[in-house]
Amino acid sequence: MKVLRKAIPYFKEYAPAYVFAIFCGLVNTVVWMLIPQVLSLIVDRVLNPLLGASPEQNSSILAFLIDGFAADEYYKIFGVLGGVFLALMAVGFASFYLKWVLLHGICLPGDFKLRRAALDKIHGSGNKLLREYSSGELITIANSDPVEVKDIFSYIIPFLLEAVTSIAIAIVFLVRMNWVSLSVPVVIGTVFSVMTVFYMRRSEKVYDAMWEKRSTLNTAIQESIYGIRTIKSYAREKLRRNYFDKKHDDLDGAYRDAAKMEAKYEFLYQGVISALFLLTAAVTIYLGVTFSLTTGECVSYVSYAQSMSFKFMNISFLLADLQRCNVSGKRLFAFLDKHDSSLDGYGSDKVSARPNIELDNICVTGGENRILDGISLSLPYGKKVGIMGRTGSGKSVLLKAMQSFVPIDGGEILIDGKPYKQYEKGEIVRAFSFGMQDVFLFSNTIASNIAFYDPNGKEERIRECAAAAEVDEFALKMQDGYDTVVGEKGFGLSGGQKQRVSIARALFKDAPVLVLDDCTSSLDVATERKIFENIKRACGDKTTIIATHRACAIADCDEIIFLENGVVAERGTFDELMALNGKYAEIYRLQEGEVAA
Fold this sequence. Notes:
Helix content is 63%, strand content 10%. By secondary structure, the chain is α/β, with parallel strands linked by helices.
């Protein structure tokens, strides 16, 4: 099975212990199959003689244990057989305990490795690949699917081996009694094999539907949690609840379909087992009446025949469970093996500490439209560049393309004169400190969110960057100061407060190029001006790129670019653009007039 082959590398480190656990399970199986052998001897050599019947020769493989005793030494025989019975029980319980503890202890690290592999894949993938999956699908892949794969090793394989071993041992013992007794195993095996084929075909479709519905529900729950402010502001709690109810009902329906399927086959299996019990009773009576089996052998025969019926049923349900695990495993490994084209062609060069960046006629296409068209920009180390443009003009895409977050469809980006794909992708990302437009804060302290790039960073450095971003203005007023824990996604902070933490986080990274993507939009003009003045002092000679809607914020940049529909409509210094009296000058005068008013 492909899933099993893919999963083995995550568990092979523990192969010796796993093999020993399997061995313990098989020992447990053998022990329980030997117990009827003891009981048949007790019936034929102890109980029947005590009741006045003659001792009978028994086919039990343990008969050699009492060969040296006279037929009337019932109590000595019982003492030996009773001791063997207790010893087998002790070995059975000990082997079962060892198997159970070892299997779970061994397989949990493999489960962890699979989860980590899924998370690493999510972290290392580009937006193009991740957009192929919903958030609910990714949560299911990273959280639930590894558990299902682990169950193949911790539950399904051991129990399948034990069931097959149990059936094989039972057949051997039945042959030792009388070859006619094989009629029951043949019927049992044939009937259950046919039923299992139909069961497996049906179960794969049902479990695949369950996976889809569970992922969709996960997405609905996540959206309701992360969008709680929007939901409340529009008073749409009832709408989201109804949406949740619908997705839950879909999943509930999938689970009910699975329950109905399992109940139907459970009913059929139980019916077959009942019929086979009657067949076993008939064969037992026949063999007993014809003196083909002793009384004790009849007891063990019934035990083995019934055991085989239940083991065949167990195999059917285990194979159905394997289908469920296989569905999850295929989804998990399909994601892990999925090629991420955004990582193609990158080299291994390292970015220098003072990089010079050149954008030469770059183009970015989205669908049938060009988001950026022929953008050229020279960024020698230390240059300050401001980017303006209306919503949708391509500002954010330009900044992301510069940092390799968005693939370019034309032109070239050079770092120190070399194409950026000669560099390791992680090196390019590390060369930029990115203050994002959409702020994400983790459920942690304010200080920890600022020090995200280096959790072991010095407290003085955290406070220095926080002060530059004007975080002091609100953090020091809180009861726990910088140790205040903000809620998930920054719940508990206003939009402007989150933006200031984001700017502080970008400054803390201390990369050679600082990029701020409209991350002061929620701030008042006075606070924004303070922050940009602080950034000038904090960044020194670092390259700084600021995208904004406020013309005054970039007035003292070395170069200002005004984008319109993905092309450069205007560019130059502040004085040059004001003299040009174009779009930038118009917006600047308008905004300054509003501020003055």
